[in-house]
UniProtKB/TrEMBL annotation:
One of its GO terms (molecular function) is xylosyl alpha-1,3-xylosyltransferase activity. It comes from the Eukaryota. It comes from Pedionomus torquatus. The lineage of its organism: Eukaryota, Metazoa, Chordata, Craniata, Vertebrata. This is XXLT1 xylosyltransferase. GO terms for cellular component: endoplasmic reticulum membrane. Keywords: Transferase.
């Protein structure tokens, strides 16, 4: 077990992610402490070179299968993909991209699966650090000018840290992501069902198959065995 000091990590992270924090943080400014919410975005820059793959998970998870099985998903990455991530299971990005959707009525942005682009949820992440290091495209997208360009194109203002960044990049470059089955990140939060989206909620929330990981996001109770 290797323990990493949060302050040391934040010190390394801050210069890399400072520019994107104002677009994807809940605060109005760029807070030094917020940098840790972007850890996954730049993990390939701060971890030792000998570490080539990392699974990063939230704490509000319940495992119904061996986490080793999730590592096998790295073998399913298509060429060019650098991150494995499941879709967001609420219409949060239908809401966030409202202006872009209004200007582009035929877009798949914010639409539900299987054909739409509902965005991502970063509760379970497979980071192929070697691929992230080697991907010219991915590293270009970390540059402040590129972040600015995409946020302007999509009129994007989020508050969910790395998840917002991955979602926005996924709208533009889906080839960078291997989409995990919903059973690997079965989110339970239903907040948006009661906040204006009850008519479409189930299209985002449904998940067929035996759940491998439950995600009790927004403090939602996780089912007992």
């Amino acid at each position: 077990v290797i323990v990493h000091d949060v302050n040391e990590l934040t010190e390394k992270l801050f210069p890399i992610v400072e520019a994107m924090q104002k677009h994807f943080s809940s605060g109005s400014g760029t807070y030094y402490s917020d940098a840790i919410f972007f850890l996954s975005v730049a993990m390939h820059r701060i971890m030792p070179e000998e570490i080539t793959q990392i699974i990063q998970v939230d704490l509000d998870l319940k495992y119904k299968t061996n986490i080793r099985d999730l590592f096998d998903e790295f073998d399913n990455f298509p060429e060019g993909a650098v991150i494995g991530i499941a879709r967001e299971m609420q219409p949060v990005y239908r809401h966030t991209f409202w202006q872009y959707r209004r200007e582009n009525p035929q877009t798949k942005v914010g639409e539900p699966p299987p054909d739409g682009l509902p965005g991502f949820n970063s509760g379970v992440l497979l980071l192929n650090l070697e691929a992230m290091r080697q991907s010219k495209l991915y590293n270009q997208l970390l540059e402040p000018t590129m972040v600015q360009k995409l946020t302007e194109k999509y009129h994007f203002k989020g508050h969910l840290g790395d998840q917002d960044f991955f979602t926005m990049v996924g709208m533009e470059h889906p080839e960078l992501f291997h989409v995990l089955d919903c059973t690997w990140n079965r989110q339970l939060c239903t907040w948006w069902k009661d906040h204006g989206y009850s008519d479409v909620f189930d299209q985002y929330f449904q998940c067929e198959g035996e759940v491998k990981i439950y995600h009790g996001n927004c403090n939602t109770p996780i089912p007992e065995d």
